[in-house]
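User: Please fill in residues for this 190-position structure.
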C-alpha cells in the first residue's frame, strides 16, 4: 500500500502565516528533494481602471523563459518556476528563507476583458499583465426634440348684445416657438 501525503492547507490563503512557515520547514526537511522543492506562491496585486485590469506579480529570480501565462474560458493562469541555484563545493548556507520550485496561480477574469489585446511585461522581478477592457456599448443620452406642442386657451368674451360666452382656442406651436394659428374657434353662449 502506497503512503499518500495529506496536505489540506496546501493552497489555502487562509492558513495562518506562522503555521504555514512551520509546515513549509517540516515539508522541506522530510522531502526527498530538500531545499530544491519548496512550494511557494508569488504575491499579486490586481488593479482595475476605467479601461483595463492590471495584474502585477512579484517573481524575482524567475527567468522569463520559466513563466507561462494563459487566458482561456475566463481564467488567467500564471505558472512558473524559480530554480534552485547550484550548490558549489565549499559553500554552506547559514539561512534559507527564499522559496524555490514551481508555482501556479488562477484568476477569474471578467467577460469585459478583451482577450486578444492582453499584454505582459517583465521588469525588475515584477511581471505586469495588462488586460484592456472591451468597448462596451454604454447607454447614450438621446435628446428629445419637441416638434410641436398644443394647448387650449379659454377666453371669456361678450357679444354685441352683452351676453357672456367662452371662446376656446386650440393652438399648435412648433419647436422654434412659432404659433401656427388656432385649429378651431368654438364659441358657445351662456
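Assistant: Residues filled in for all 190 positions:
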Amino acid at each position: 500500500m502506497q503512503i499518500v501525503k495529506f496536505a489540506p492547507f496546501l493552497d489555502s490563503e487562509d492558513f495562518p502565516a506562522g503555521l504555514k512557515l512551520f509546515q513549509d520547514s517540516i515539508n522541506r526537511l522530510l522531502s526527498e528533494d530538500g531545499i530544491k522543492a519548496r512550494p511557494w506562491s508569488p504575491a499579486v496585486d490586481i488593479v482595475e481602471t476605467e479601461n483595463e485590469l492590471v495584474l502585477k506579480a512579484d517573481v524575482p529570480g524567475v527567468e522569463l523563459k520559466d513563466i507561462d501565462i494563459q487566458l482561456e474560458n475566463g481564467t488567467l493562469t500564471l505558472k512558473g518556476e524559480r530554480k534552485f541555484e547550484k550548490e558549489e563545493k565549499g559553500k554552506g548556507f547559514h539561512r534559507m528563507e527564499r522559496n524555490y520550485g514551481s508555482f501556479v496561480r488562477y484568476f477569474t477574469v471578467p467577460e469585459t476583458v478583451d482577450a486578444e489585446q492582453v499584454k505582459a511585461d517583465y521588469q525588475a522581478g515584477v511581471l505586469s499583465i495588462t488586460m484592456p477592457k472591451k468597448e462596451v456599448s454604454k447607454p447614450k443620452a438621446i435628446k428629445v426634440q419637441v416638434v410641436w406642442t398644443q394647448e387650449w386657451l379659454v377666453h371669456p368674451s361678450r357679444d354685441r348684445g352683452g351676453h357672456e360666452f367662452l371662446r376656446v382656442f386650440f393652438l399648435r406651436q412648433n419647436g422654434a416657438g412659432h404659433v401656427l394659428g388656432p385649429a378651431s374657434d368654438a364659441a358657445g353662449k351662456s
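For context: The CA atoms of residues 170 and 183 lie 5 Å apart.
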